[in-house]
Design brief:
The protein is α/β, with parallel strands linked by helices and 342 residues long. It is built from 15 helices and 13 strands. Helices cover 45% and strands 20% of the residues. A 7-stranded mixed beta sheet has the order 1-2-9-6-5-3-4, with helices on both faces. It starts with a strand and ends with a strand. The relative contact order is 0.11.
Length: 342
């Protein structure tokens, strides 16, 4: 099986769906020196597939996206005398590809990189579109660059390395794609265990279409952040004890209920959000007593413009729109009535 989806960004590249990621990567490297950025749990497996490659082992999870890890990787590249003709490869989940892309964007002012996503969210979202970055103390992805990979290699065999929680959390991003652009994804989600390849492929198509129209997130690319402003705030507030998708699931329910409160969507659409996410086993509540802290984290969102928090809301199924200047009292009320627990 080999399928290819073209991404039109600052440069054109392919997302390839293959049965043998290592062979595809060796062919793509074309004899160049390769540096692999790989989280610790995968480090023992990867070099056996790619003899001769330099290996930099990363911590697990969001710890990869710290300034300290970023700096350590840059220093290691300099120590290895990596040049602009060499190749960075990020093999891992969304945190790994975010870091690998930012390293590639900044080392020697930019070198080529390839993403090999090993998680659901990495395959259908994080490794695609050229947004790279790391976290700061004040929020997620506040330092970064637009720097597309030269290739994204998706091999569904990686899914066997994931536990059920990671698969279900990763599919939340596919649910998002269903609501903002492709409702067929929502139909496929009803039997997601049998439909994961089709769900991932359709979600990649959604992102490819949007990124091709707005690479630098000046307009419709913001639609891909549906549910993410509150979701990122909760993810950070939880100390990253929640998976990215678990936090975004809460954010999706929140923006659906906010759109319902503002009269933008019907109750059926709002309830469909909860139904889809409960089907994935998501916990859709969060602590009630910390709204002020969560709102402050939302205020640090990198997509904020001027002095107001803008949110992406639906005005119908597959009809997203940016909405600004929502009164804080309405935002808080919807949170307390639809999300807050305890």
């Amino acid at each position: 099986m080999t399928k290819s989806i073209t991404i039109e960004a600052e440069r054109k590249y392919e997302v390839v769906l293959v049965d043998d990621w290592a062979t595809e990567l060796l062919n793509s490297a074309r004899g160049r020196r390769v540096v692999l950025l790989v989280p610790e749990k995968l480090a023992s497996f990867v070099p056996t597939k790619l003899p001769g490659a330099e290996l930099i082992v990363l911590p697990e999870g969001e710890a990869q996206k710290s300034i300290s890890t970023f700096a350590e990787v840059l220093e290691k590249l300099a120590e290895l005398l990596i040049t602009r003709s060499d190749l960075i490869v990020g093999i891992g989940g969304g945190a790994t590809t975010d870091l690998a892309g930012f390293v590639a964007a900044t080392y020697l002012r930019g070198i080529e990189w390839i993403a090999v996503p090993t998680s659901v969210v990495g395959a259908l979202d994080a490794s695609i579109g050229g947004k790279t970055g790391i976290n700061l103390d004040h929020g997620k992805n506040l330092a970064g660059a637009f720097h597309s990979p030269s290739r994204v290699i998706v091999d569904f065999a990686w899914l066997s390395t994931l536990d059920d929680r990671d698969i279900r959390a990763g599919l939340v991003e596919a649910v998002k794609c269903g609501f903002i652009a492709d409702p067929t994804i929502l139909d496929l989600m009803r039997d997601y265990q049998a439909n994961i390849p089709a769900i991932i492929e359709r979600s990649i198509q959604v992102k490819a279409s949007i990124v091709g129209k707005d690479f630098r997130e000046s307009n419709i690319r913001e639609f891909l952040n549906y549910g993410h402003t509150l979701g990122h705030a909760i993810e950070k507030h939880s100390g990253y004890s929640l998976r990215h998708g678990e936090a975004i699931a809460i954010g999706l329910v929140y923006v659906a209920n906010l759109a319902l409160e503002l009269g933008y969507i019907s109750e059926d659409i709002a309830l469909l959000h909860r139904e889809m996410l409960q089907h994935l086993g998501m916990n859709l509540g969060y602590t009630s007593g910390r709204w002020d802290e969560i709102f402050e984290l939302m205020s640090h969102d990198k997509k904020r413009k001027s002095n107001s928090i803008a949110l992406i809301l639906l005005k119908g199924l597959a009809k997203p729109e940016r909405v600004e200047a929502i009164p804080n009292e309405i935002m808080k009320s919807v949170y307390m009535n639809s999300i807050a627990k305890g």
